[in-house]
Every structure is written in C-alpha cells, then in structure tokens.
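Problem statement: downstream parser choked on a complex file, so we are re-checking the raw output for the coenzyme A run. The parser issue turned out to be on our end (a line-ending mismatch), but while we're here, posting the original submission so the record is complete.
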Amino acid sequence: MKRRVHTAGPEDVATLGRLLRLLAEELGATLGAGEPAGGDRLGAFLAAEVTSPERCFLLAREEGRPVGLCGLRFTPCLWTLRSAAEVQELVVTADRRRRGCATALLEAAAAEAARRRCSHLWVLTESWNTDARAFYRRVGLKEKTSSYFEWALSQGGAGPPPALICPCP
Ligand SMILES: CC(C)(COP(=O)(O)OP(=O)(O)OC[C@H]1O[C@@H](n2cnc3c(N)ncnc32)[C@H](O)[C@@H]1OP(=O)(O)O)[C@@H](O)C(=O)NCCC(=O)NCCS
C-alpha cells in the first residue's frame, strides 16, 4: 500500500470538506451549525482557510485516495516567544484506521511545525474521546490537564451572561 502525505491546496477544498464532515460526524457535531442554509459556505470558508498563512492542511492519500486529514493552525505564543502549532482537525477514514495513517500525518505536522520554528505542537480533545487520547499518548504527546470553556455568541441575539453585565452606578 502506497501512502503519500502532502500539503493541501485550493484544488483540494472539496476533499477537505468531505473529510471534515466525517470528523464532525465522529464528534457528533454539525459543520456550519447555526448558519443560514443554502450556498456552499463550507467550500468558501475552506477556500480562504487553505491559503491562509496561519493554516496548513495535510492530506494523506493511499493509492491516490484521500484517507486522512490533519489541520494545523499557527499562532504566536507569549510563553515561548515563538509560534505554536495547534492540531485543530485530525481524522482518518474508518476503513483505514490502525495502519499508521494518523501517525504519518502527525509526523508530517511536527515536521511542518519545526520548519516554521514553532516551539511546540498541541491539541485539545474531548475527555470522552478515548481513541484519540490513546493515539496522542502513543505518539508521544504529553497529556496535560486541560479544560475547555465556551461562550456561544449568537448573531444579533442574546448579550453577555448576566454575571458579566456591570450594573450602572
Ligand atoms: C484517532 C485517529 C485519528 C487515529 O487514526 P489511526 O490512523 O487509526 O492511528 P494510527 O494507526 O496511526 O495509530 C497509532 C497508534 O495509536 C494508538 N491508537 C490509535 N487508535 C486507537 C484506538 N482506537 N484505541 C486505542 N489505541 C489507538 C495505537 O497504539 C496505535 O498503534 P497500533 O495500531 O499498532 O496499536 C482515528 O481513530 C480517527 O480518525 N478517529 C475519529 C476522529 C477523531 O476522534 N479525531 C481526533 C479529534 S481530536
């Protein structure tokens, strides 16, 4: 089986979309949730992302078929005064798992992060995602305690939570 990992370009937007939908399904999420229906908002969004200097999408192909995706975002890190690489998306198609595909993607991600002189590579994953956590541990990422808090900002909807509204004197 011949595997190739390469950086995705604008011509790969449809493939990225397919793999991201698969990832969303796996995580029980919906891509573009809350956005008005119609049009190809995901395609347009990805077309901008794939050419962003802060982004890098790595695609794994086996016998030419796209079977895995690793999406990176590079952000400045004040603690190290260098860039840091966040793995924002990682998925391998169900029929190609446990064959080293995600490992190859993470190796390519680490090489890209090193090329950009990043101080570290990091990832957030859900506590219930035991498969992903086993994988990250196995490839050598250090498991640090982390929590994730979110505040949904609806379009023209509700304001900040009451605790954040200062009463006028
Ligand atoms: C997590 C995921 C990317 C791993 O992809 P993969 O190509 O199967 O991973 P690899 O074959 O490179 O695995 C390397 C090692 O990691 C560990 N590992 C991988 N998947 C595992 C699982 N489901 N359970 C336990 N250990 C696992 C194993 O030690 C494995 O080596 P082995 O097969 O020789 O035992 C894949 O299961 C996936 O796409 N899951 C759904 C999407 C997802 O949860 N993404 C992460 C979001 S943060």
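For whoever reads this later: The chain has one domain: 3-164.
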